[in-house]
Structure formats: C-alpha cells, structure tokens
C-alpha cells in the first residue's frame, strides 16, 4: 500500500482542470469526485471527456460543457490526450479509453466489487501511472 501511496504522489497522477466556479456551480474536479457514476476515477472521467468531444452525453456532460473554452484549446480528444500525455490510457487512434476495470457503461458501480477487481484496478492504475511518469520524464528530457 505504501508503494501505491508513494506512486500516487508523483506527477503522473495529476491532470489540471479549470478551478474557477461558473455560476457558483461545481468545478469538474468537484463533480467527478462526488458523482456516483465516476467516484473520482480518472479513467471514467477521461471517458466523459472523450464523449464530450463527440457531442455525446455522460454523467459529467453538464459540468464539462460549462468549460467549453478550456476544452476548445485542445481542438479534439486526441489533442487533449497528447497535451496531457495521456496516450497510455487510450487506444492508438484515440477512439477508446483503456479502463482500469471492465466498463459496462455508466450504469454499474465504479467501485471494485471484490478483491479480484480491486487487484485489477490497482494493477492497471499503477501501470498507467508508471507509463505516464516515464512519458513525462521523456518529454522533460526532450525539452532540456
């Protein structure tokens, strides 16, 4: 558990979202943290962002839509993923999110149901964080 905690405190676990409240409504980060269909899972949040760019509704559609100006900066889902170095959480053509757990739509509880699912969730989460940290490091080396 300490290993995961230490890894979760690295830059690979962070993505910036706008922090300004619009019309005194929740920010994206607030909404994703308390939405029972998302439960603060980043893979599910990324799916909502993918759906936003396709003009599809999702549990976070309303809050993401409030920040149109922010998401317009990236033009499309591919641009968003490339800017934030999220390539290791999507397929090669940016049409599908690689979920930490099997995804059955936003109808099932996003919390792992048992030890097997929890282990899968942790393993996939750790794998993504490690790959993203490596990608960030490579990008930083490129800039130097």
Helix and strand topology:
Elements: H1 2-8, H2 28-34, H3 42-53, H4 61-65, H5 68-72, H6 77-83, H7 115-143
List the main descriptive attributes of the protein structure presented here.
144 residues, 50% helix
Describe the structure.
This protein is mainly alpha-helical. It has one domain (2-143). Helices cover 50% and strands 0% of the residues. The mean pLDDT is 95.
List segments where confidence is low: pLDDT < 50 over at least 5 consecutive residues: none
Gap between N and C termini, in Å? 34 Å
Shape summary: globular
The radius of gyration computed from the alpha-carbon positions, rounded to a whole number of angstroms, is 15 Å
The total number of structural domains is 1
What is the helix/strand order? HHHHHHH
Percentage of residues in DSSP E strands:
under 5%
SSE class: mainly alpha
Residues in helices, as a percent range? 40-55%
SS summary, helix count: 7
Annotation, overall tally of beta strands: 0
């Amino acid at each position: 558990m300490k290993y995961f905690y230490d890894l979760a405190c690295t830059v690979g676990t962070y993505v910036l979202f706008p922090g300004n409240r619009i019309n005194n409504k929740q920010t994206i980060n607030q909404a994703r943290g308390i939405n029972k269909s998302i439960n603060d899972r980043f893979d599910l949040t990324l799916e909502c962002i993918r759906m936003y760019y396709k003009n599809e509704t999702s549990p976070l559609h309303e809050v993401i839509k409030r920040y149109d100006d922010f998401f317009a900066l990236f033009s499309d889902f591919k641009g968003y993923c490339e800017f934030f170095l999220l390539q290791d959480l999507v397929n090669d053509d940016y049409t599908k999110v690689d979920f930490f757990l099997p995804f059955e739509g936003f109808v099932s509880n996003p919390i792992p149901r048992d030890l097997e699912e929890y282990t899968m969730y942790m393993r996939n989460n750790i794998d993504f964080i490690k790959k993203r940290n490596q990608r960030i490091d490579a990008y930083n080396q490129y800039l130097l």
